[in-house]
Amino acid sequence: MSNIEIIKVSHGILWSISTVVLFFFSFKVFYKFLIQEKKCTARTKGIVKRYTSVFVGRTNSGVRLPVVYYYVNNKEYSVTGPLFKSYTHRRKTVSTPQTTAEMEFYETAAHGLIIKRNFFFIFPLGGNPMRILYPEGSLLDVYYDPLNPKLSYVVRYCGFKWLFWLLFITAMVTLLSDLFVLFWL
Q1: Are the CB atoms for 178 and 7 separated by under 8 Å?
Q2: Cα 42 from Cα 1, distance rounded (Å)
Q3: Helix count and strand count (H, E) for the chain
Q4: How many CB atoms within 10 Å of residue 157?
Q5: Among 3-7, 67-71, 89-93, 161-165, which stretch is predicted with the lowest mean pLDDT?
Q6: What is the pLDDT of residue 86?
Q7: Averaged pLDDT, 51-66
Q8: Is this prediction's pTM over 0.85?
Q9: Any long-range contacts for 52-56 (C-beta under 8 Å, 24+ apart)?
Q10: What do you get for the CA distance between the two ends of the chain, in Å?
Q11: Rounded CA separation 148/35 (Å)
């Protein structure tokens, strides 16, 4: 086998694995965003019981999303949300940790969350704004698919279809690049 054939085979294997991984993630993780809006037609009330342990937005953002539990046909389900399309942090760095923990936040018309807070070096002063917006024990609207109640979202649909399409198109480009290198070079 020549060096060019070895390069083609190794390139083909790596790009094929990448294609499979991208297709897997696009359908396993992000496909729900493609079908949520049409399928989630039933509504119920859910209760905020806890918050995620992972931050959303920038590092040290302090934003942890509520985990909402709801019942459909006497079976309990959970969903994380409400989701925002973006999390914008406007920070003011302060020199002493004794500064008051001022935090302002508001939702934009485009379903983004803007948070203004003081930071002491890299650590945010103040808590999780989601705990103030949606405290534990609060009731929120949960929209779910009557045929598959596990498919759901909280308060409003945020339109993350683009995440599915981004990964799917990237997987297709990767596949076509792989085929091009294998058969035409």
Answers
A1: no
A2: 60
A3: 4, 9
A4: 17
A5: 89-93
A6: 66
A7: 76
A8: no
A9: 52/80, 56/87
A10: 16
A11: 12
